[in-house]
Amino acid sequence: MADDFRDNGGAGGDVIVAGGGIAGLTTVLALRAAGIPAKAYERAPALRTAASGNGLVIWHNAVLALRAIGLEKELDAVGTELRRYRFASRPRGKLADWSLTDGARAYGAPAYTVARPALHRMLTELVGDDLRLGARCTGFTETPDGVTARFEDGSAVRGPLLVGADGLRSTVRAQLMPYEPAPHRVGMTACQGSAALPHSAVPPGVFVNTFGEGTWFVYYRTDDDSVYWDAVLCDGPARRLAEGAPHLGSGIREALLREFGHWPSPVPELIGATEDSGILPVDVVDRDPVPRWSTDRVTLVGDAAQPVTFNLGQGANQAIEGAVVLAQCLAKARGGPPAGALAAYGQRRIARTRKIARRSRANAAFSRFRSPLACLLRDTFMRVAFDGPVYRATYRLTMDTDLTPEDIRP
Ligand SMILES: Cc1cc2nc3c(=O)[nH]c(=O)nc-3n(C[C@H](O)[C@H](O)[C@H](O)COP(=O)(O)OP(=O)(O)OC[C@H]3O[C@@H](n4cnc5c(N)ncnc54)[C@H](O)[C@@H]3O)c2cc1C
């Protein structure tokens, strides 16, 4: 690159990306698509293996972002197209049924379900040698002409820019915002698993979300063999789970069957077909939005910038969108230092992710109702409003992207 911000604005070298999750790897690929070399530094010593389920829905907005950097075909190869998104109530049955095929037609891109390990593997292979494993970033030093990232093994690397893509408990963010409290628990435990069930029990292309009382259960197929499932317990039920399976991992399947064993098929079958060791409990945490993510040469992307509780299924989608928008802003900064590009990135992303995070929190509050009366009101509201106004509002919010595909082309 002859004329980018690295030459005219200070230190040469590659952009440094701390973290090799979805945000970090997509950032490297988006920067590469814009002609800006970058390397990711991941603390894990080896690539993750598919220990358990970990499914993800990749909505139309992230598919458009991946298309902007030429990766839609690769996603299509590992994902399963999602056509229907169904909401049900455990006692009252079907509540709403969204056609994602209509969404795909309206926005020009399908949505997918994907096993997270498969998506991660795909991104890792594409990044290739631009990923260093076993490199835990411990901090950075920023000067007017560059930034130096330090690693646990005593090594250091200097570059024109540092992108903190190191997740919910980001070290880069902690240095940028030293007085910020740690992420707070929201009182929800999500237990994820993956089981082999035939197409007759769980057809491909359908996401099912069933609400109970302080509990809900999600399942969908991630490929021909596997069905991802997620049993979510809030407040009281979450505490019961912790008491029933105190060493989380041993006895967790039995504890979940006590909560969900009487739910309609295939819920008990999915839990029953998953070993204790294949069930991954996650305590959901959140952070309040902040007005700034960047200094002149350091910024954040993905969960490090703005975590989103999983109630809108947008966390990884926003990580992908954010990585692409960051690369677009930097591509425009050729010929000058990156500070202006980082300010533009903040302007394009902070308000959007704040709205998404707020809506996700509202969904979380709505999903944790426990009293039978509150659940009856919730279910009635969903039956009346979800296929109409809520569907339209969700699409308006999630598809309000400001991606400019032409900017990203090298
Ligand atoms: C139960 C559940 C279901 C979800 N479902 C969905 C869904 O359907 N759709 C969706 O869009 N989102 C979903 N999400 C959210 C999604 O998982 C996250 O938003 C997404 O993983 C964020 O990606 P990230 O790369 O920013 O962070 P992470 O995935 O956390 O990756 C951060 C990476 O940085 C590394 N790292 C950390 N610290 C350091 C360091 N100091 N130095 C170097 N490396 C470091 C970590 O090892 C990790 O590899 C879900 C979340 C949960 C809990």
Structural class: alpha/beta
Strands, count = 18
Q: Looking across the biggest beta sheet, what order are the strands in?
A: 6-5-14-15-16-13-17
Topology-level CATH name: FAD/NAD(P)-binding domain
Rg calculated over all Cα atoms: 21 Å
Short description:
This protein is of the alpha/beta class. It is built from 14 helices and 18 strands. The strands form 4 sheets. Strands 6-5-14-15-16-13-17 form a 7-stranded mixed sheet. A 5-stranded parallel sheet has the order 8-2-1-12-18.
Provide the fold topology:
Layout: H1 5-8, E1 15-18, H2 22-33, E2 38-41, E3 55-58, H3 60-68, H4 72-78, E4 80-82, E5 84-89, E6 93-99, H5 100-107, E7 111-115, H6 116-127, E8 131-132, E9 137-143, E10 146-151, E11 156-159, E12 162-164, H7 171-176, E13 184-196, E14 206-211, E15 215-221, E16 226-234, H8 235-244, H9 252-260, H10 267-272, E17 280-286, E18 298-300, H11 315-332, H12 339-367, H13 372-398, H14 405-408
Parallel strand pairs: 1-2, 1-12, 2-8, 5-14, 12-18
Antiparallel strand pairs: 3-7, 4-7, 5-6, 9-10, 10-11, 13-16, 13-17, 14-15, 15-16
Helix pairs in contact: 2-6, 2-11, 3-11, 8-9, 11-12
Features of the shown structure:
single chain, 410 residues, alpha/beta, FAD/NAD(P)-binding domain, seven-stranded mixed β-sheet, 24% strand, globular, binds flavin-adenine dinucleotide
